[in-house]
Write a structure and sequence with these properties.
Shape: rod-shaped
Strand content: under 5%
Distance between the termini: 42 Å
Number of strands: 0
Radius of gyration: 39 Å
Helix content: over 70%
Number of domains: 3
Structural class: mainly alpha
Number of helices: 16
Oligomer: single chain
């Protein structure tokens, strides 16, 4: 595989080859036309007959024009015949030109018997040496074919045949990229960022550089959409198949990195895919926090779920405390199980677990930790609100405050 500098050298060399072929073939073509006096065969048919272009081809009088004008009247006027004769003259002249062009191509093919074969061989050799060469070849050949003035010339048809081959190579290369995405398997103990996500940025930047001003950008843009769609669909499949890493982590990290890459590249036609990647990342983050953060105040949550159920069944909030299972004494007993120092110790263990799950490349540890902090505060506020509503005069509160929670999370993050 070639490095970037070698690819640029190849690009320059290939452009030089194509540019050098043009004057050589053109000079030889002009020589053939002049030497074999082929120009004399191309004038309009009317001129060859030595007649004025406005004169009817039959050379007869007005009565001779009846079959051409579609009228049997001997008094038919001349203009229809003039128009028809001009059309016939032009058509015959074009046929002559086509015949001459064919003869010239035949001569050129006999003179340059191996040009197409050698050009195709040259293309395939570099395509085998480095698959990225097919990008440069496709763009360069497209430029020469699209800018050709004489599309029927020997060189244009030769370049056209080579372009067809280069398009096949281009599609095969991009299809191989897509296959590597769809067939991705990860056997590592820790999944981390998937290879196709890691490699996509360099791949896309290389393609964008090659196709920057090319008329073939639309071909590349279609492939970008197919590749990105393949990535979005493959990530959850890999996450499901990988037994050692949490599915939510694999999805969260890879969607996050892919979204970042897409935001930086700003590829045409991929805006909706970028939004999709963002939404999938947020869903995976939420699922991970819900699954692994859980409810650190589990007994309190269960207690107040029972309180909420009583209220829903018709018991007044102010009377819940008179229920034996939900008395003030029972609530104080549950609260005593969650002193501040024990809560902080549990959070430290959770941080270590999260750190073990995540990879450095994803750079999501602090993001996840903050999401868990917000979830803890949400649960705390829900418990606090029900306490105030159902036990308003009991002066019952947890052993720690929201400020304490913020301090716990901050201290743990800084200490690691």
């Amino acid at each position: 595989e070639l490095d970037m500098s070698e690819r640029h050298k190849f690009d320059e060399m290939f452009e030089c080859v194509l540019s050098e072929l043009e004057p050589v073939c053109l000079a030889e073509q002009e020589f053939c036309i002049t030497f074999f006096n082929l120009n004399s065969a191309t004038p309009l048919l009317a001129t060859e007959q030595g007649s004025d272009p406005s004169t009817p081809l039959s050379g007869g009088g007005p009565s001779d024009n009846s079959s051409v004008g579609g009228s049997s009247s001997s008094g038919s006027s001349g203009p229809p015949a003039v128009a028809d004769s001009s059309a016939l003259t032009a058509g015959a002249g074009q046929n002559k030109v086509n015949t001459v062009n064919k003869e010239v191509r035949t001569m050129m093919a006999a003179l340059f018997t191996s040009l197409e074969q050698q050009l195709t061989g040259f293309i395939n050799t570099f395509d085998r040496a480095d698959s990225y060469c097919c990008l440069y070849i496709y763009v360069r050949l497209s430029g020469h074919v699209l800018s050709a003035q004489d599309t029927g010339s020997f060189l244009s048809t030769t370049f056209g045949s080579a372009l067809v081959q280069s398009k096949r190579n281009f599609d095969r290369f991009l299809q191989a990229q897509l296959n590597s995405i769809v067939e991705c398997r990860v056997s590592k103990k820790k999944c981390a960022i998937l290879p196709f996500v890691t490699n996509f940025e360099e791949f896309a930047r290389t393609c964008e550089c090659v196709f920057k001003r090319s008329e073939r950008r639309a071909d590349l843009e279609r492939w970008h959409i197919r590749l990105l769609t393949g990535m979005l669909d493959t990530i959850p499949r890999v996450a499901h198949d990988h037994a050692r890493s949490p599915q939510e982590v694999i999805k969260m990290e890879n969607y996050h990195v892919l979204h970042q890459v897409m935001s930086q590249l700003k590829l045409v036609g991929t805006e909706q895919l970028r939004k999709d990647a963002r939404a999938r990342y947020q869903d995976a983050l939420s699922a991970y926090v819900t699954s692994y953060f859980g409810r650190p105040l589990e007994k309190l949550n269960i207690f107040f779920e029972g309180v909420a159920a009583k209220v829903a069944s018709g018991v007044k909030e102010s009377e819940v405390g008179y229920q034996l299972a939900f008395s003030k004494q029972e609530l104080r007993k549950v609260i005593r199980d969650y002193p501040g120092r024990e809560v902080k110790r549990g959070l430290e263990q959770l941080y270590k677990k999260v750190d073990k799950h995540l990879c450095e490349e994803g750079n999501l540890l602090q993001v996840v930790w903050r999401a868990m902090q917000e979830e803890f505060i949400r649960q705390y506020k829900a418990i606090e609100e029900l306490t105030h509503r159902c036990y308003p005069d009991a002066q019952i509160s947890l052993d720690f405050t929201i400020n304490d929670i913020l301090a716990y999370f901050s201290d743990i993050a800084q200490s690691h």
